[in-house]
UniProtKB/TrEMBL annotation:
InterPro entries the UniProt entry points to: DNA_glycosylase, HhH-GPD_base_excis, HhH-GPD_domain
Coiled-coil region list: none
Residue span, HhH-GPD domain: 25-148
Organism, as annotated: Actinomycetospora flava
Protein name per its UniProtKB record: HhH-GPD-type base excision DNA repair protein
Length: 196
């Protein structure tokens, strides 16, 4: 079992380390929201739903009650309704295609490319998010099928500070945040130059 420190909170990180579905949900919520808060949300959701998160449980949960659990306070995401619905869609797909077991997405895969393809089949997982999660699995969870670094693209690079896959403590969290801000700044500058 990995000892993750993505949420920078011992209790929230224990939930992520013990429950592959919680980790997958944290990754799903990691957009337009601070990284560590996205990864702390599965622990709050576990509390609000009254027990360990399971794909079958969330898939069958009353949608409005799930939205209420996401709304809080505190809210589990900047967009609680759409993210509650997306998490439920993810869990329904896991039940239909993967026997309700999130870890089968990577445990059943024979290569890094297959892990990436499995992740990309999920609602809310575009190529970039799937690559970051593939890197996270390889770097911190010991999931290293053949070609995993290649499948993860630059997120799989040794020693990089590009994404949540590289966060192991408060220092690396700051380095990843700095990298993301520099990327945004560069993109903004490029856009301004293109329109002038």
């Amino acid at each position: 079992m990995p000892e993750l420190t993505l949420a920078q909170d011992a209790d929230a990180d224990a939930v992520l380390s013990a429950n592959p579905l919680a980790l997958l949900i944290g990754m799903l919520l990691d957009q337009q929201f601070p990284m560590e808060r996205a990864f702390a949300s599965p622990a709050l959701l576990t509390e609000r739903l009254g027990g360990p998160l399971t794909a079958a449980g969330i898939a069958e949960y009353d949608t409005e009650a799930l939205v209420a659990a996401f709304t809080g306070p505190p809210a589990l995401h900047r967009y609680p309704r759409s993210m509650a619905e997306r998490v439920q869609a993810l869990c329904r797909l896991l039940v239909e295609d993967w026997g309700g077991e999130a870890e089968r997405l990577w445990a059943d895969a024979g290569s890094g490319r297959e892990v990436l393809a499995n992740l990309q089949s999920l609602p809310g997982f575009g190529k970039q998010k799937a690559q970051i999660f593939t890197a996270l699995l390889g770097k911190q969870c010991g999931v290293r099928p053949e070609g995993w670094r290649e499948a993860a693209g630059s997120y799989g690079d040794e020693g990089s500070r590009r994404s949540i896959a590289d966060v192991v403590d408060p220092v690396t969290l700051g380095e990843v945040r700095d990298f993301k801000q520099a990327q945004k700044k560069a993109a903004k500058a490029a856009k301004a130059e293109a329109s002038s």
